[in-house]
Amino acid sequence: MLLEQYDWGLDARTLQVLFALGLGATFGFAAQITRFCLRRAVAGDFQDRGRAGAVWLTALATAIVCFQLAVAAGWVDLAGHRYLDGELPFLAIIFGGLAFGSGMILTRGCPSRLTVLAATGNLRAVAVLVVFAIVAHATLKGVLSPARTALGSVSADLPFGTISEIPFGATIASAVVVLAAIFMIYRHRPAITNVALASAIGLVPVLGWATTSFLVFDDFDPLVVQSAAFTLPWSDTLFWAIASSAIPAGFGTGLIGGVLLGSFLSATVRGELKLESFESPTQTLRYTAGAVLMGFGGVLAGGCTIGAGLSGGATLSIAALLALVSIMVGAALVSRMVDREPAFVPA
Fold first, then answer.
1. Which of 239, 287, 310 is closest to 118 using CA atoms?
2. What is the mean pLDDT of the segment spanning 122-138?
């Protein structure tokens, strides 16, 4: 739409990178302040878990409701996208989700949280993200791709790909998530600022879908329709940094850059920049193992807590919701095994 109405003097790819940069900065700024992370909602102590869960559910509820409104207004078009496909590679999604959730516990944060921490000086997060990106790329196109292909070949044909295709499905699902978020806010009383910022985070994936499928979509040179995510974008960003003359930056690279920028600015303003590193070889091994599990699992599951959780969850995709549930189950199980201390350890 914007390409037809205005002469930007830039191609669609460059405009998508710029839009993603702005969306990523918004996400990073809000996530740094709220410490936005699904791991805290699943594996924190009771008080922290409740508040983190209220914030995360607020973002999800915002994403679902606003996505439905955007579709109704004609601002989002996901025709042909894998999230709408009724063929469900359930084995890969479940296995990948469990692996990703397990890794998220070992690294004490999902890739979105680690990206925020990396921008504030956490060298553990930097190391994890590099390993995560390499393993994700190896799973997509390298030595681990045969395992991805084998697991992905086991699928089930569903009569629909999203809950939205069920009569009143979108309305009922939206109402359930909104009511759950309201209940969690009422019970655990997170800071009102965090609730407002969670709503801003929930808008990011919807605006991402709108940007790549409608606002900055070129019919003559179509690009991949995508939204906020961290698995494929970190893989693309790492290899763009290594070979930018051969690999052009895309929406995902712009998003990662924006998250780093927004997080850094927020931490700077709040006086929270701090260099941190590994404390022992054992900790290094734990975080490395977690990075490997998240890189492999994120690709198999079709996304991370943001890619599948918020962006995919906003579409009410069966595949995305299955991935989200699998991630949470994996995180809860491994948390019970490796993090037995009741006290919350901040990421």
1. 287
2. 97
